[in-house]
Amino acid sequence: MRAKILWIEGKRVDNPPFIPNLRKKGFSVEVVKTGEEALDSLSIVDPDLIVVNSASMRTSGKRMCRSLRERANGIPVLLINAEGKLDLPNCADVVLTLPFTSRKLVNRINPLLPGEGKNMLHIGPIRLDLEKKRVRCQGRETTLTPRLVCLLKVFMVHEGEALERKRLFSEVWNTEYTGDTRTLDVHISWLRQAIEEDPRRPYFLKTIRGLGYRLDA
Fold first, then answer.
1. Per-residue pLDDT tens over the stretch 192-205
2. Which pick of 11, 88, 146, 195 has the fewest CB atoms within 10 Å?
3. Where do the DSSP E strands lie in the chain?
4. Which of 112, 139, 155 is at the close of a domain?
């Protein structure tokens, strides 16, 4: 799965110098011109990382970075800074001061990206961190209870399959008892609040009448 970067570039927006190299290395890079455009694009792009190239703007980028961190729900921010502008504490997760190479940029980007493998499930726009018990979807990040993590994991492993209520109780609650389904329904509601833009009209986690639920990611 290609990591997605939302890149804010004030000048040379059609050809920022680092972006061709990042794309060659397999990153998906979406370029916008302003912080306002970046905020509007968060839910659409659903980036893994935001890069603010303040060296291409007439600003330090400090206010922009803080605004993005407040609105980006845990998405890391990397600031590219012009030489001499060093008074930028705590405004970004990483600050890089020009000049530097594309290799150094990639080396600083990689630790900021969500991990892959046994501790991370990633299907469509849904990213579930099993270790930190967090889910991120469409630019929003939510901390889940252990039971919700287990329930979402079952849906993600069986994405596209209609899962019976009995099977969900068995795999998540370790019980064959299905006489009272309100517990499951409440947990489904909580999951929808975490991953759906409109939980009342779910796009991802759908009810299959008379059977159970299905995740379409």
1. 999 998 999 999 99
2. 146
3. 4-9, 28-32, 49-53, 77-81, 94-97, 120-123, 126-129, 134-137, 140-143, 162-164, 205-208, 212-215
4. 112
